[in-house]
Amino acid sequence: MSPIEIRELGHGAAFSDWVAVPVLVHKDDPHFIRQLDIKERLRIARWFSPFFKTGTAAFFVAYRGGRPVGRVSAQVNPAFQALHDPDAGHFGFFDCIDDMDVSNALFGAAKAWLALRGCRSVIGPFSLTINEESGLLVDGFDEPAAMLMDQSRPYAARLVEGAGFSKAMDAYAFRVRGSVDATPIRKLARLALEGGELTVRKARGERLADEMRQFVEIFNDAWSGNWGFVPWTDADVRAMARDIKPFFRDEFGAVVEIGGQPVGFAMIIPDFNEVIASFGGRLLPFNWWRLYRDMKDVRSRRFRIPLLGIRREYQRSVLGAKILALLVAALLEKTPLRAYDWVELSWVLEANRPMFSLCRMAAGAPAKQYRFYRAEIPS
Q: Strand runs (DSSP E) across the chain, as ranges?
């Protein structure tokens, strides 16, 4: 076997090699969806990604015989360190051929980079933060991933564990199928409206930036006690509003209020992975028009609920269960702009039992399972 060489982006590794790795790794995977090259570039661009307002990262590519065969990132997130573990760094963007030597070399480079920055442990995958694509797919390889969700090969967990990592936490994705009877969740929502204490409304697209700030305030409050949580920043809010504005409709957001004050919200987005599946990573010459048309007309038959939050004071109560039911039911009612294949609720931490139970009521068994790992960095 030819020797393995690890190069860092900006120090010998080319961006074209970075995006070539997942294409190679998934070449025999019928469910793999190549992401847009421009999107992949912007995700790690220091001038564009909100992560780099406070965080720092390195991106490594593994070569064998001059051919890119693996990749991984290493990053330090001061917000995570301040809230959870001052000695922890992160890894992300892990893709690798089925070769333990290559994966060990990648993780060795990531750990060495983190050690030089004072880290004693590494957690992941986060690409780049827990509020972006995160978790390694460990079950549910029989259908495509939703947008902003990890795509991994079944052997990837073995490679990660072989590099000294062990499970830290699992999360799940549930899919409400178009053929599934959602009557139980809709009945619970109707009961929640009795008495008039709770009201539910659509989002206000003409005030999207203000709505997003309010949504994120609730989200930060709702998730503040959860494993690994890092609050959304103003930069994150601006970036999200920028990304969703071209296709956002009022019915894609649901807000539950008490006395006119928002206490819970949820947002649904079309799954544009379905649209870009045939693009081969390219927008030119004509794919940009197809994407714009589908975003404008919302031609997708698949949707994802990426954001949902209920103020902490109402969680783990009967009222909180009612708010949750109203949010999920409201979005399910609005989704069939045309017949849909599925609506994904993700990702749901295994420790969040109330949410897990409600998702099972709405969707049945989880469609996909994701795992977060942790390893110590030798001193």
A: 4-9, 12-13, 56-64, 67-76, 88-96, 121-124, 126-127, 133-134, 136-139, 166-177, 198-202, 253-258, 261-270, 302-310, 342-349, 368-376
Which single residue is written with the structure tokens 């999920």? 328
Residue 186 token pair: 């809709």
Give 69-108 pLDDT, tens digit per residue. Answer: 999 999 999 999 999 999 999 999 999 999 999 999 999 9
3-state secondary structure of 344: strand
pLDDT above 90 (res 152): yes
Is the CA virtual torsion 215, 217, 220, 224 positive or negative? negative
Q: Smallest Cα–Cα separation from 73: which of 106, 40, 26, 112?
A: 106
On whether the CB atoms of residues 134 and 93 are closer than 8 A, the answer is no
Q: Which CATH number fits domain 181-363: 3.20.20.80, 2.60.40.730, 3.30.70.360, 3.40.630.30?
A: 3.40.630.30
Q: The pTM is what?
A: 0.92
How close are the terminal C-alpha atoms of the chain, in Å? 30
CATH for 4-172+372-376, among 3.40.630.30, 3.40.525.10, 3.10.180.10, 1.10.287.110? 3.40.630.30
Q: For 6-132, where are the alpha helices, taking DSSP H only?
A: 15-25, 37-43, 78-83, 100-115
